[in-house]
Write a structure and sequence with these properties.
This protein is an alpha+beta fold and about 900 residues long. It has a domain of about 90 residues. It is about 45% helix and about 15% strand. The chain contains 32 helices and 25 strands. Strands 1, 2, 3, 4, 5, 6, 7, 8, 9, 10, 11, 12 and 13 form a 13-stranded antiparallel β-sheet that branches. It starts with a helix and ends in a 21-residue tail after the last helix. The C terminus is likely disordered.
């Protein structure tokens, strides 16, 4: 029998054990927290010794395409395409601002913060590598010029003359922390107490076993991993929701884990331009020396300064940050946006309003003049009124510009030069901020390091800077830097590469899937760089290994054709070169409808007006042409226009009207047949020289300029012959692109019948892997004037995707009307400038959309320049050099001229002038 004292002793022991367990469960977590805090402080101290900057960066790791911060928050990002609104209308800018406003109003989580980073940096040679990898140039001189061109661009990149502009959007989210952070003893005690409370002493072994399991590190890691995965899934859901909002005004692509690492690496190591590795340890990404100066940071020899917004602009409007976006040196424009809890923010603003009112009252209750307090009162009242009475939301923003020097300072002289360069750039930033409708900026000094860290990528919301301003969502939308220059087409080979006015690369491929057709329009006055641009296009497009056919007036293209080993044909009444328009395609034995329509259109042009209805005449001619084909092909001959004349003269009688029309047409064809004055160009068999398929050929019809109708007829005949070559496969069975150039030969568009045939070529060229480049001195050559418009001109423009507008002559109302140019685009065309020997500016409009337009600065290597210049002085100089050195090949001559005169000879007389129109046309 158990004694009562034993029972009492056992009860006391159990009670003491319970009290001890309760004490451990209650007090050990706090002790553990303090211990962890002390250990964390010690660890931070060791990190500070190793790397003070890395110790201050609140980033724990990068995993699952996320940046995990030390406070448990997440951050991920997108690369945004941006919107090219430099030449957009005011209505388009307001629409974009409204879309941004709606996006900001959709922020429903106060713990969410969005940061836009507009990054201006030196470009990398990646686009050159893409071009070299995908090039398929079979022409030997063109290959040599291409290698020299790539070297030229690579040197420009290495010298920092080519920029890259990116827009990064980073979204951070701070969830409620639910991770297990207690020590092992604390977890054991808590689990033991909970088990005893629920199961009692009867299950003591099981309770102890469970408590020991809870104390294991493996269990803790597993539980925290489950919690982390749950939070990541929740963050990704939020991330996808905000992505939909961003895609309302720009295309976005999520940054991958290596890209996030590279983004951080470039921020910590600006002197290292090599790609970052995939090591996730943040401290390993900071492998550079750093020091903090009075007004700048030194990161491995690259100096950085931070300018923050200190005063808001007087008012906001769309495109407000343009002065900042125009900066042409390495910098980062950072805008952080938070939408706080609206009720709490309203209470805070009301307290601020009371303070501003109190500042304006004396002790006796009368008002005193305090302009600063009065302005604060007005701004606060306006903000509260808009927030309460409208759908506007209150937003907190921070705006900063991180400025960098361009080169690594390795010596004292380099250091002094870098400091001067940085000071000038900071001054430019302050001036640009001042141009934002009266805003003011402040160069950070005392708190430079903390501010710099606070504006690093992936750190927003963790470090407070006290640089925030309170605005409405509509005003915030006007500050978002979404405007990026258009970078061109990105489908296929970057066949044409040039520099934009902003200093970025523009890549253009007329055969890109981004475009609906491959046709190109080039227009500009004499001396605007029009022919120079066309020849540069032909040279660079050699990487596609195309066939090229040119119809022009004059010898502008002779040097280029001879350089590339092509054929140059001069056509006039004194030559014996003939192209019979009746020739059939080599693969057919009967004329198709397109062949018949082409011959009918040409015969109609030759005959001119007959007094009858045009439709009646065309129908009758079609019937006569078919009869002529049937009659001649039956005996194995190819018809000519004299055979059509015979058919008309012997046409079976139907009625008096048809008989009279047949005799009239036969009479009008007399000049073009038999012994007529134009017969030797149209009523003969095709010359052997024109039956061969040439890779590069140029037809010069300037010898026919005395007769516009003859010139139009010959141009149309050659154009049809070229059109028939488009889409033909070569001997190996492969389909090569065909580029047809028509330069200053658009008189045929005045004839609506010929124009319709040319229009059909524009419509069908893309389907057959062809591109038509149309060049002229004015848009009126295609569409006519307002008083006398061409019927097919507007349709041709609709089937021309890319339009290069060089400097124009006279007023531009017709150009604006036809191309639907906005006011900024029209001003850009008016302000196009050329610097001889350096660059020629051209406005590029694609798909008639201002978002896909830009101003390019066409530059050339010295050898490209001498191969493509059309300046009369330089052409004469080049011809004289060739005559003096007959032993040199065309490429060797270009090489010698490029070395001796890298900027040409026509610009020497203009050296004292700052700007002038380009001498190369």
């Amino acid at each position: 029998m158990i004694q009562p004292s034993t029972i009492h002793l056992l009860a006391v022991l159990i009670g003491a054990l319970a009290l001890l367990t309760l004490a451990l469960a209650v007090f050990l977590p706090y002790g553990s927290t303090r211990t962890e805090a002390r250990s964390e402080c010690a660890e931070n101290g060791r990190q500070k010794v190793a790397s003070a900057l890395a110790g201050r960066i609140p980033i724990s790791e990068i995993r699952d395409d996320l940046i995990v911060r030390r406070d448990g928050s997440f951050c991920a990002g997108w690369e945004c395409v941006g919107v090219a609104t430099q030449f957009a209308s005011a209505e388009r800018l307001e629409a974009l601002s409204s879309a941004l406003d709606a996006f900001i109003k959709g922020f429903r989580h106060p713990e969410i913060e969005l940061q836009f980073r507009y990054v201006v940096d030196h470009d990398t040679p990646q686009v050159l590598q893409d071009r070299k990898t995908s090039a398929n140039c079979a022409n030997s001189p063109a290959t040599w010029l291409e290698e020299n061109r790539l070297s030229f661009w690579r040197s420009a990149i290495d010298a920092g003359q080519v920029r890259s502009i990116k827009l990064i959007a980073l979204l951070s989210w701070k969830p409620t922390r639910t991770w297990e952070t207690r020590s092992a003893i604390s977890r054991f005690a808590a689990s033991l107490w909970d088990g005893l409370a629920r199961q009692g002493l009867s299950k003591l072994p099981n309770v102890v076993r469970l408590a020991l399991s809870e104390a294991k590190t493996k269990t803790l890691v597993q539980r925290n991993r489950i919690e982390h995965n749950r939070l990541v899934a929740e963050f990704n859901q939020l991330f996808g929701t905000y992505r939909i909002g961003l895609e309302g005004f720009t295309q976005v692509r999520r940054l991958t884990e290596p890209e996030l690492v590279h983004l951080l690496y470039r921020s910590f190591n600006p002197a290292d331009r090599q790609a970052a590795n995939r090591n996730r340890d943040v401290q390993s990404l900071l492998n550079t020396d750093w020091s903090e100066g009075v007004r700048f940071l030194d990161l491995g020899g690259v100096l950085k300064a931070v300018v923050t917004l200190s005063e808001l602009p007087e008012a906001t409007f769309a495109s407000l940050p343009r002065p900042l976006l125009a900066l042409d040196f390495p910098c980062e424009i950072v805008l952080s946006i938070r939408v706080p809890d609206q009720a709490a923010k309203v209470r805070k603003l009301r307290r601020l309003l009371k303070k501003s009112l109190a500042f304006q009252l004396r002790k006796d209750g009368s008002r005193r003049r305090d302009f600063q307090a009065a302005a604060l009162e007005k701004d606060t009242v306006d903000t509260l009124t808009s927030a309460v009475t409208s759908s506007q939301r209150i937003v907190e923003i921070e705006l900063a510009v991180i400025v960098s020097s361009s080169k690594v300072a390795r010596t004292a002289a380099d250091r002094e030069k870098a400091e001067q360069e940085l000071a000038q750039r900071v001054e430019s930033v302050l001036q640009a901020i001042g141009q934002m409708n009266g805003a003011r900026g402040y160069r950070e000094d005392a708190s430079l390091l903390t501010t710099f860290i606070a504006f690093l990528p992936g750190v927003q919301g963790v470090r407070k800077t006290n640089r925030e301003f309170t605005l409405l969502s509509g005003q915030t939308a006007d500050l978002v830097p979404t405007e990026l220059p258009w970078t061109g087409t990105h489908g296929g080979t970057p066949a044409f590469l040039t520099r934009t006015r902003e200093g970025t690369f523009l890549r253009f491929n007329p055969f890109s899937n981004d475009l609906t057709n491959a046709n190109i329009l080039v227009t500009g006055k004499t001396g605007s760089g029009k022919s120079f641009l066309v020849k540069q296009l032909l040279l660079q497009l050699q990487v596609l290994n195309p066939r090229i056919a040119i119809v022009t007036k004059g010898a502008d293209y002779r040097a280029l054709i001879e350089l590339l080993g092509g054929q140059y044909r001069e056509i006039s009444l004194r030559t014996k070169l003939v192209k019979n328009p009746w020739d059939l395609n080599g693969t057919t034995h009967e004329p198709d409808s397109a062949q018949v329509a082409g011959v009918v259109s040409l015969a109609f042009h030759m005959a001119g007006r007959t007094g009858s209805d045009d439709t009646v005449t065309l129908n009758f001619l079609e019937k006569a042409v078919r009869m002529t084909y049937e009659r001649l092909l039956a005996i194995g001959k190819t018809p000519r226009f004299s055979d059509l004349k015979w058919t008309l003269e012997h046409y079976p009688f139907e009625n008096a009207v048809i008989e009279e029309l047949a005799h009239l047409l036969a009479l009008k064809l007399s000049r073009w047949t038999g012994e007529g004055v134009y017969a030797q160009l149209f009523d003969r068999d095709t010359s052997p020289e024109l039956t061969k398929t040439e890779d590069i050929i140029c037809y010069d019809i300037d010898g026919l300029k005395e007769s516009s109708e003859l010139q139009a007829a010959v141009a149309f005949t050659i154009a049809r012959a070229i059109d028939q070559q488009i889409g033909r496969k070569d001997a190996s069975g492969s389909l090569r692109p065909t580029i047809a150039v028509f330069d200053e030969v658009w008189a045929m568009l005045a004839d609506p019948v010929l124009g319709n045939q040319i229009l059909n070529a524009f419509r069908t060229a893309r389907k057959r892997y062809g591109s038509i480049i149309a060049a002229s001195q004015g848009i009126e050559d295609f569409v006519g004037t307002a008083e006398s418009p061409h019927t097919v001109g507007p349709a041709i423009l609709q089937n021309t995707e890319a339009k290069f507008l060089c400097a124009q002559l006279g007023e531009l109302s017709r150009l604006r009307e036809v191309l639907h140019l906005s006011e900024p685009a029209l001003e850009a065309v008016k302000e196009l400038r050329n610097v001889p020997g350096h660059f020629a500016e051209t406005y590029l409009l694609v798909a008639n959309q201002p978002e896909s337009s830009t101003v390019i600065q066409l530059t050339a290597t010295p050898f490209d320049y001498w191969a493509t210049t059309s300046n009369p002085v330089e052409m004469e100089f080049r011809e004289g050099f060739v005559r003096e050195h007959p032993e040199l090949s065309a490429l060797e001559g270009i090489y010698r001229l490029g070395l001796a005169h890298p900027q040409g000879v026509a610009s020497s007389a203009e050296r004292n002038r700052k700007e002038t129109y380009a001498t190369a046309s």
